[in-house]
Specification:
Shape: elongated
Number of strands: 18
Order of helices and strands: EEEEEEEEEEEEEEEEEE
Helix content: under 10%
Number of domains: 2
Number of helices: 0
Radius of gyration: 20 Å
Strand content: over 45%
Distance between the termini: 18 Å
Length: 181
């Protein structure tokens, strides 16, 4: 399995920790504090679990869970009336956009979709209004920035699912740089 490494090379005398923010496309997938001299690994995978919830009056409906590895998919939330009972379910259809999961709501109330990636801290939550859709990027593009002593580094971007982002103190030790390797 691939993983992105977040390394803190700032001396302990400057700060006890740096906070890293890791994004895949527009989705923040990790917010991790790393102690000075330490590192954290965030697994990267192209496997997805999707489940949804919605409401029907006073009732909360929870859908079935979908698991798939396609980087392009249409996930459709629908409520069916089967033999007098309401069945809230998700179905997966072929994707309509490359490198994206389209979340579509056909129900008359908002639907909350939760996307997770097994073995990772990733949890993406999208609320889609009635008869609407939302797009979640699955492109292999990661961006990262770090916050050290309240100072935010420049954002660094990569397409490498095995990249290492390292934060270091600049020569004056009052600003910080994030590098990619």
């Amino acid at each position: 399995m691939s993983q992105i490494t977040l390394a803190n090379n700032v001396p302990t005398s400057n700060t006890p920790a740096a906070e890293f923010r890791l994004l895949q496309g527009a989705n923040q997938i990790a917010r991790i504090g790393v102690h000075a001299g330490g590192a954290a690994a965030v697994p990267t995978t192209t496997s997805y679990n999707v489940q949804a919830t919605t409401s029907m009056g006073d009732f909360t409906l929870t859908s079935n869970a979908l698991t798939f590895s396609d980087t392009s998919a249409l996930v459709l939330a629908q409520v069916l009336n089967e033999d007098g009972y309401f069945d809230f379910q998700l179905i997966q259809l072929p994707g309509t956009q490359p490198s994206a999961i389209t979340l579509e709501n056909t129900w008359r109330s908002p639907v909350q979709f939760t996307i997770t990636q097994p073995g990772t801290p990733v949890e993406i939550i999208n609320v889609v209004d009635e008869s609407n859709n939302a797009i979640v990027s699955t492109a292999e593009q990661w961006s990262c920035y770090a916050i050290v002593n309240g100072i935010t580094t420049a954002t660094v971007t990569t397409n490498n699912p095995n990249a290492t982002f390292t934060v270091t103190a600049d020569n004056n030790e009052s600003s910080y740089t994030l590098t990619l390797s």
